[in-house]
Amino acid sequence: MSNTVIKVEHISKSYILKHQNEASYTALRDVISNKAKSLFSSNTKGQRKSSEEFLALNDISFDIKQGDRVGIIGRNGAGKSTLLKVLSRIVTPTKGKITIDGRVASLLEVGTGFHPELSGRENIFLNGSILGMNKIEIQKKFDEIVSFSEVERFLDTPVKRYSSGMYVRLAFAVAAHLEPEILIVDEVLAVGDAEFQKKCLGKMKDVSGEGRTVLFVSHNMVAVKSLCSKGIVLEKGAIKFDGNIDEALDVYNSNISNAVDNVSWAIEDAPGNENAKITSIKFKTAGNYYYIENEIEIEIEFYNFSDNHTLNASISIFEDKDVYVFASPNLIRIPLTKGIYKSVCKIPKNLLNKSKYFCTVLLVGNNFEIITQLDKVISIDVDEEGTQRGNYFGYWGGVVRPHLEWQNIQIDKL
Q: Which residues in the chain land under pLDDT 50?
């Protein structure tokens, strides 16, 4: 079709993962002992491979038409970010063919797209030049970009001094206003405040209404549903579903409905990087029953491999219908020494209503680097057995159900 702007044909992307035979914290005596054993044994059975192939994308094909607003959704590790990097020509596919008709502007992660030593003003002109615009065209859009980004006071400051929120505001404003035919946006909007996220969603709708195409990745399914008309669900690097956004969200939700109240990993397989890894996440409560009137704890255990490295955990709670209930970061950011740590978040009793709730967990390092993000990794069913609710026995609506303080005060006599 003549209005197809992105055509993806059987693309795959593989990486070679290298494994260290010993973890970085193995004692010297263990290394010497293992070397000695290897001298007297030729048996390699059970030894871990030094490298293996990881298939991030597996034989993916789809078409996107001009003006489509497409949500790309899937669990952590499904291949969403890899796919966007391939479409943005940041990463070359191992196999397959991609045809793109039009200029592409990408906003994939905090820290990409801008030169850190240049000011905000200079980066606006740099990005416009990369998109093939001349100075006059960029100047016409300059005031709109600055107004939208709300960083006018810091326009002549090097962007390396920006907070992550300021950086994303300017980066999105540049990407959305310099008139690319295709706008690709990853989860980075989660860095901004709620009001700015709403502003960005409105701008992406406007962009689509002008005939331009939007590809959007987010773990906020409410935002995906409000923006997108089409959805692509990825699972383990392959397409699980491609079609209407409501059906796509149903498929995605069915994939996560089997989540459990605790998960754990062996250290070599745990999510994270060379700085830190999460080894377990669990819900806990008194007597193992998740009742409305019980306090609920979320316990996150992680390894820190670096001295003087600040780490903090963050949780987001979603209700069964993908309503974003709340987020809570651990605001205690202190330098940690090497060791094993545990972060515990307490959800007060009489807050959550009767429903199923999912928990997304992030581990964040220095400079707000997201070390790992685990989407809807655990879940619980909150029940109301024994909950005091007066003489009312009907449906009690809302995603939260707090016991608030009330007073009856007589202000005069009749």
A: 1, 22-25, 44-46
